[in-house]
Amino acid sequence: MPHILWSTQWQGGPAARTVGPGAEVVVGVTEFVTHRPWSTLPVGAAGLRLRRTWPLTPGAVGMWLWVDVGPRMNRSGSITVWTAHEHLLGFVARPDHRRIVSDHRARGTLRSATWTAPFTSPAALRESAWRLVSKTAPWPASSG
Question: Which of 20, 46, 58, 103 is buried most deeply by CB count within 10 Å?
Answer without folding.
Answer: 46
